[in-house]
Amino acid sequence: MSLVRAERRRFFKRRLTRWVFPIGLLLLVTIASILFAFHSKPTAEARAKGETAAEAMYQEQVRYYEQYKRECGEKCPEDGWTGPQRSDFRAEDFMPPSFNFKEMYGQLFLVWAAIMAMVAFLLGASFVGAEWASGSMMNLLTWRPKRMKVLGTKLAVMLVSVAALSVLALGVWTGILWAAGELRGTTEGLTPGVWQSFGLTALRGLGMILAFAALGFGLASIGRHTGLALGAALGVVIVGQVGLSILFQMVRVPFWEQYLVPIHIFAWMNKEMKLTDWSSPETVCDNAGNCNPPELLITWQDSGSMALGLIAVVLVLAFWQMRRRDIS
C-alpha cells in the first residue's frame, strides 16, 4: 500500500474526523436552517402593509418636525435640514425579512470559513499529534524511515482532505441558502460578476481554512502532542487577544486592534478593514475641511502576508525538528 493511500485512509478512519467534521457540518446546517425559517417570501399583502406602516411613520416624523419648529421658533439652527423625506421610509423596512441571496450570501462566507477553520485546526493538530502520543509515528518510521517524506506526505494528505471536506460543507451550506433565496426571498441579480466575486471570496475562505489546518499540524508536530497546539491556541485567545487588548487600551497604543486575529480574519475575507484611532488627539483633514481621527487600512494582502509568514515559520521549525531530533 502506498504511503499516500495509507495516510488518506488513516485520516478518514480516525474517530476525531468522524466526529468533529459532522459536528461542524451540523452547526452550519443549523445556522442555515434558522436563516431559512426566519425569512419569508415577500407578498403583495405584506408589501401593502409595509407601505401603510412606512407612510404612518413618515407622517409621525413630519408631525414631530413641525412641532419642533414651532417650539424653537427663530432659535432653530439653520443647518439646511429640510425635515423627514418620504424616500427615507421604505416599505421593505416594515415588512417581514426576506432572504436576498445576492446580498446575504457573500456576507455569510465568514460563517462557513470560521467554523471550518476551527474544525481544520483540530483535525490538523490531532492527525500528527495523536500519532506521536500513541507511538504510531515510531512504527510508521520503521516501515518508512524517510522522516521528511513521511511528515510531508502527512501534511499534504491532511490539507487535501480538509480542502475536500470544506468544499463539501460549502456545497451543503450554499444549497440551503439557495433554497432560502428561492423559497423565502429572491435569487435575482446574480450576474457573472457577482458569481466571480463569490468564487474569489470562497477561495480566500478555503485559504484561511487550510492555513488553520497547517498551523495546527505544525504546532502539534513541534510539541509531538495535540495538547500543545490546543494550548497554544488557548494562550493566543486568552493572553494574546484579551490580555494584550486590555493592556494596549490602557497605554493607548495607536490602532491596537491591528494586533487582534479577528481583525485580520475580517480583512482577509472582506478584502479590507479600516481602523480608526479614536483616542488620538490628532486629526486628519481633507481639502474640503472635514477633519477626522487618523485611520489605518488593513488589506487582505497585508493579513495574508502575515499569516503566510507565521505558518511558514511554524512548518519550517516542525520539519527541522523532525529531521534533527531522535524518534523515541
TrEMBL record:
Q: Name one GO cellular component term.
A: plasma membrane
The protein's matches in Pfam families, at most eight in alphabetical order, are given as: ABC2_membrane_2 (PF12679)
> Which controlled-vocabulary keywords does the entry list?
Membrane, Transmembrane, Transmembrane helix
Keyword set includes Transmembrane: yes
The answer on whether this UniProt entry bears the keyword Signal reads: no
Say which domain of life the source belongs to.
Bacteria
Coiled-coil regions listed in the entry = none
GO MF term (any one):
ABC-type transporter activity
Q: Which residues cross the membrane?
A: 20-38, 109-134, 155-178, 198-220, 227-251, 303-320
Protein name (database record)? ABC-2 family transporter protein
What is the originating organism of this protein? Catellatospora chokoriensis
Where is the organism placed in the taxonomic lineage, from the top? Bacteria, Bacillati, Actinomycetota, Actinomycetes, Micromonosporales
